[in-house]
């Protein structure tokens, strides 16, 4: 417990009268930290902290890398928290104990009473706050605006994949369109280079030809598993897989998550998720993903990006128990007692002439936010009438000259949420074309027009700069073991749907999210009969972990991965 006498020895409280110090001491929390413990992490809601003993280090996430600022150590007598409290923001930095520490923590009300009742305290706090805000200003001016420079053409597929990957990982980049921004290309770039060129942290040229994986490696992102054996391998880094990673690691399991591209899945491409519990103003998919990735990492889940799982086989583990061998592209293999499949769905292909030839050259599946600079002042078409098409239309309408939503049915009412229909109605540059189908897409190097037919009437050709296809999605599960039970559309069956099948080999009833292969679970959109929503994916991913625990407990004498 903190005493008034201890507070008197701290400069900020010297000026207070004894009864005020008594009052404060009675309400202060006595926080004790060991070296390595966090006092507060960036992004959390701050209290007001006064350091009584010990030293703390300051760190901050700077464009995806945690940077330590050793020049700004906190020690006995310092205080922290006035900036976020007074600005009403989450903490801008993290503080971690370097030595044993003792800290008096005051909640917001006590802090506000302090600055209201004591002019001297208030003046000291304001002076410190001004000093710190000055540092923030200096930091902003000195920090480069991006970590990656990409020089390439708008229609170069590798260049687009790299931009999408960086955007989904929230790594700031600068993209120079070599066709239109020739004068801005750095002179050190070889003049005869044909494909895209990528420089990381102003110094490292990614080897030619740059690929998503090479860029990920240059940025220090993990692309290789570090262990041979895991308690659970999660395949897919969308909401379901990320939830499984967070819950699994937080509950002590040794977790590997493998994602073929960047974490986030379909949700990561959503410009605004408005129906996820706890975010009344909505949250963009990449922000939700960034938080989940950070959370999974903090709990110790291992995540490898840009790696695709191409094969899974049943096997006997060295201890004699059942398990799985999971093979990544390139042939790397890991083993695990359990697997959670959370591979979601892939965009359904548009059946129209010329589409395959122009994919990535004006015709795009999905609606990555990275496309916003490419549609400024352009005529954009969106095929599809679901929520994803509605979100894409809203997002691109702030950049494009016109956005036309092409739908086969009578309108959006049957397929889109009412809140989105309302938002679209308020946008003057969005038009809806019901009963319309795309017949063909045209262009030499890139899309320049599309041909559509309405109610089966004569086809009409119009200028089009971009066509985003969002006509639903299918499960891509051909690569999974033949024995794994799927429905006629490729979605994976679980629980009750497999319990009576001869292919269920277990002596017990399968767990709710267990497939017909014992210890092989499935969560999220790829599961037969799942509700295709972020929240249900998150729910199923976390539930799958509870079943993994129950499954492992059936076999408890055998060792888990360390
Ligand atoms: C544009 C858009 C907007 C949306 N908006 C909303 C919304 O506002 N609210 C809402 O509730 N829902 C929304 N949804 C639906 C929601 O995003 C999905 O239901 C949810 O993302 C499903 O999560 P999931 O983890 O099951 O699969 P996914 O999100 O599809 O993630 C699957 C992941 O697995 C990876 N993967 C696939 N195969 C492999 C493999 N072999 N090896 C390694 N990795 C692999 C993929 O790359 C992907 O990252 C939206 C969907 C889209 C497309």
List keywords for this structure.
562 residues, alpha/beta, 16 helices, 30 strands, 25% strand, binds flavin-adenine dinucleotide
Task: Please tell me about this protein's structure.
The strands form seven sheets. Strands 14, 15, 16, 17, 18, 19 and 30 form a seven-stranded mixed sheet that branches. Strands 2, 4, 5, 6 and 8 form a five-stranded antiparallel sheet that branches. A five-stranded parallel sheet has the order 21-28-22-23-24, covered by helices on one side. Strand 18 and strand 19 (333-341) form a beta hairpin. By secondary structure, it is an alpha/beta fold. The longest helix has 24 residues, at 119-142. The mean pLDDT is 93. Helix 5 crosses helix 6 and helix 9 (239-250) packs across helix 16. Helix content is 28%, strand content 25%. Residues 235-241, 258-261, 265-267, 269-270, 273-275, 308-309, 342-345, 367, 387-388, 391, 524-525, 532-535, 537 line the site of flavin-adenine dinucleotide (FAD). The site of flavin-adenine dinucleotide (FAD) has 36 residues, from helix 9, helix 10, helix 13 and helix 16.
């Amino acid at each position: 417990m903190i005493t008034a006498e201890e507070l008197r020895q701290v400069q900020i409280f010297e000026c207070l009268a004894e009864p005020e110090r008594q009052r404060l001491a009675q309400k202060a929390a006595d926080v004790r930290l060991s070296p390595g413990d966090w006092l507060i992490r960036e992004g959390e809601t701050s209290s007001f902290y006064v350091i009584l003993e010990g030293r703390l280090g300051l760190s901050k996430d700077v464009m995806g890398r945690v940077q330590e600022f050793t020049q700004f150590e906190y020690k006995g007598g310092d205080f922290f928290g006035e900036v976020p409290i007074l600005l009403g923001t989450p903490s801008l930095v993290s503080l971690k104990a370097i030595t044993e520490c003792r800290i008096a923590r005051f909640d917001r009300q006590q802090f506000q009473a302090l600055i209201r009742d004591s002019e001297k305290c208030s003046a000291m706090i304001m002076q410190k706050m001004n000093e710190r805000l000055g540092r923030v200003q200096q930091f902003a001016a000195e920090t480069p605006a991006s970590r990656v420079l990409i020089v390439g053409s708008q229609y170069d597929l590798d260049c687009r994949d790299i931009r999408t990957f960086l955007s989904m990982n929230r790594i700031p980049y600068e993209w120079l369109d070599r066709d239109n921004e020739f004068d801005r290309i750095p002179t050190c770039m070889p003049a005869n280079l044909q494909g895209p060129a990528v420089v990381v942290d102003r110094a490292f040229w990614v080897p030619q030809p740059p690929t998503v994986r090479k860029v990920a490696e240059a940025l220090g992102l993990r692309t290789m598993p570090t262990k041979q054996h895991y308690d659970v391998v999660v395949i897919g880094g969308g909401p379901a897989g990320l939830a499984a990673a967070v819950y699994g690691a937080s509950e002590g399991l040794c977790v590997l998550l493998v994602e073929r591209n960047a974490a986030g899945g379909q949700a990561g491409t959503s410009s605004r998720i408005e129906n996820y519990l706890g975010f009344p103003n909505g949250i963009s998919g990449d922000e939700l993903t960034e938080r989940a990735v950070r959370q999974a990492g903090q709990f110790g889940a291992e995540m490898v990006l840009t790696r695709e799982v191409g094969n899974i086989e049943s096997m006997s583990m060295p201890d004699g128990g059942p398990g799985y061998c999971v093979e990544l592209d390139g042939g790397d293999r890991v083993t695990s007692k359990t697997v959670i499949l959370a591979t979601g769905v892939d965009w359904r292909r548009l059946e129209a002439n010329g589409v395959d030839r122009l994919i990535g050259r004006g015709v795009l599946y999905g609606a990555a936010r990275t496309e916003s600079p490419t549609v400024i002042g352009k005529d954009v078409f969106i095929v599809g009438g679901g929520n994803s098409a509605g979100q894409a239309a809203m997002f691109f309408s702030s950049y494009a000259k016109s956005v036309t939503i092409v739908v086969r049915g009578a309108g959006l009412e049957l397929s889109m949420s009412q809140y989105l229909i309302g938002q679209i109605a308020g946008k003057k540059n969005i038009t809806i074309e019901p009963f319309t189908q795309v017949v063909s897409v045209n262009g030499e190097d890139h899309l320049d027009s599309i041909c559509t037919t309405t109610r089966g009437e004569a086809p009409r050709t119009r200028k089009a700069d971009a066509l985003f296809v969002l006509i639903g999605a299918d499960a891509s599960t051909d690569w999974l073991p033949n024995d794994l039970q799927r429905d006629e559309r490729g979605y994976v069956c679980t629980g009750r749907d497999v319990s009576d099948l001869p292919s269920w080999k277990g002596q017990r009833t399968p767990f709710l999210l267990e497939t017909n292969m014992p210890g092989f679970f499935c969560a999220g959109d790829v599961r037969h009969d799942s509700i295709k929503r972020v929240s249900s994916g998150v729910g199923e991913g976390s539930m799958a972990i509870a079943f993994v625990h129950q499954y492992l407990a059936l076999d408890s004498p055998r060792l888990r991965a360390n």
